[in-house]
Design brief:
Elements: E1 2-5, E2 16-20, H1 23-38, H2 45-54
Antiparallel strand pairs: 1-2
The chain binds zinc ion.
Zinc ion (ZN) binds near residues 37 and 38.
Length: about 55
């Protein structure tokens, strides 16, 4: 199981991913969330790294 909290990357946001089966799945969900909620259309390597290191599980 993998978990991610948007606030762990410094966003003032209550979004959480829980119970994802893999880190890859969390990355995909987070990417959609970033686009829809934070208007981030391009995930830079820097941001991907931040998200990756904030994923637990
Ligand atoms: Zn968020």
């Amino acid at each position: 199981m993998a978990e991610f909290k948007c606030k762990d990357i410094g966003m003032k946001c209550g979004f959480e991913v829980k119970g994802a089966s893999s880190k890859d799945e969390v990355m995909q969900i987070a990417q959609v969330h970033a686009r829809v909620t934070h208007n981030i259309t391009t995930i830079t390597p820097d941001l991907a790294q931040k998200v990756s290191s904030a994923i637990r599980g």
